[in-house]
Amino acid sequence: MGTTWIVLWCACLLVCVHALAPTIKLNDGRETPLIAFGTWLGNSSQGRVKPQYNETEQAVLWAIDAGYRHVDTAMIYMVEDQVGRAINAKIDQGVITREDIFVTTKLWNDQHARDAVVPALRASLARLNLDYVDLYLIHWPVGQFANGTFDSTDYLDTWRGMVEAKQLGLTRSIGVSNFNQHMLDRILNSGLERPAVNQIEINLNLQQPKLLEYCKQQNITVMAYTPFGSLFPTKATPDAPPPRVDDPVLVEMAGRYNKTVPQVALRYLIELGVIPIPKSLTKSRIEQNFQVFDFTLKEQDKDVLKKYDTGYRTVLQLKWFDHPYYPFEKDHTNANTPRV
Ligand SMILES: NC(=O)c1ccc[n+]([C@@H]2O[C@H](COP(=O)([O-])OP(=O)(O)OC[C@H]3O[C@@H](n4cnc5c(N)ncnc54)[C@H](OP(=O)(O)O)[C@@H]3O)[C@@H](O)[C@H]2O)c1
């Protein structure tokens, strides 16, 4: 009986114990893992994909088992309840403690008034069933009223609300998402607290070296959303530039590292100094995407990957093109393509 227990215990350890991701320090002193698990279900021709069942809850359970300790969500993804159930289940099971996991969520555009921020975060916390989040982001600099018309509240006012949310202990860190350099500058020059993070689109087609350099100089950590860009044909629009996942150059490169093309793409982002946020609902892919800390890319391979940067955006949000705080270049050569 005793031997059986020891064998079972060792087997359990083998399954449960795995290397966690390295962490980095944010400018406010808090640590965050170098990879985050994404929970946006994406868009279809009918608009935002709505949760069908507990698919995100299941995915987050798998992600925690795979070793992820950072989950990225948002009010607008409509899955905060599922994310919270998965995290609380793993805490109840003793797999993690609340302190082990870094939870990021975001303020939606229709809550940009300064005094709307704290209630919006409290509502997110209620859905997540958590007392605090680790990071709260302004999802976009663009304000909108609930009916979709533009609200031109200055994001500096929204930022004041974010600072208040932090002071109340509802979030440990605060940051922004989809902010350009000018917008970050305005916050930095305002005398208010500095954002810990800017979450922006970064992938092979959109490497944003200038914005990355600026964020590095200002000690603002960058989280990279849509890290696969147009790698997968199911997600790529017809005009999206290469590479795809079956690109012979990438397949050959990945083979040399005994890795997959998606793993090489994620590793490249980590070596650019950003935190990728891969999303998947597929157990094997969730696990695969986490296995990116046991190899490093050679300089000549990084030079090849650098050349895929064509400045092509996957997430353009053209419906906000005329908003005074639309954050992206307005002379986009690809701006006539109806994308999200
Ligand atoms: N701040 C913002 O404005 C913003 C905007 C966009 C996204 N985000 C965040 O960033 C996260 C990631 O971005 P994203 O969801 O746009 O895209 P993504 O992570 O680049 O790509 C997700 C797609 O790739 C597939 N996939 C993932 N790993 C794969 C693998 N190893 N092999 C083959 N296919 C794979 C997924 O399929 P399956 O799910 O079917 O496996 C899914 O279709 C989001 O979930 C969200 O948390 C933030």
Keywords:
TIM Barrel; two-stranded antiparallel ribbon; single chain; 340 residues; 8-stranded parallel β-sheet; alpha/beta
Annotate the secondary structure layout.
Elements: H1 2-16, E1 23-25, E2 31-33, E3 37-38, E4 43-44, E5 47-48, H2 55-66, E6 70-72, H3 80-92, E7 102-107, H4 117-128, E8 133-138, E9 143-144, E10 150-151, H5 155-167, E11 171-177, H6 181-188, E12 197-201, H7 209-217, E13 221-225, H8 248-256, H9 261-271, E14 275-276, H10 283-290, H11 299-306
Parallel strand pairs: 3-6, 6-7, 7-8, 8-11, 11-12, 12-13, 13-14
Antiparallel strand pairs: 1-2, 4-5, 9-10
This protein binds NADP nicotinamide-adenine-dinucleotide phosphate.
Please explain how this structure is put together.
- Helix 2 crosses helix 3 and helix 2 (55-66) packs parallel to helix 10.
- The protein has eleven helices and 14 strands.
- The protein has one domain (18-320): NADP-dependent oxidoreductase domain (TIM Barrel).
- The chain has helices at residues 2-16, 55-66, 80-92, 117-128, 155-167, 181-188, 209-217, 248-256, 261-271, 283-290, 299-306, and strands at residues 23-25, 31-33, 37-38, 43-44, 47-48, 70-72, 102-107, 133-138, 143-144, 150-151, 171-177, 197-201, 221-225, 275-276.
- The chain is α/β, with parallel strands linked by helices and 340 residues long.
- A hairpin with a 2-residue loop joins strand 4 (43-44) and strand 5.
- It starts with a helix and ends in a 34-residue tail after the last helix.
- The protein binds NADP nicotinamide-adenine-dinucleotide phosphate (NAP).
- NADP nicotinamide-adenine-dinucleotide phosphate (NAP) binds at residues 38-40, 42, 72, 139, 177-178, 199, 225-228, 232, 235, 262, 277-282, 285, 288-289, 315.
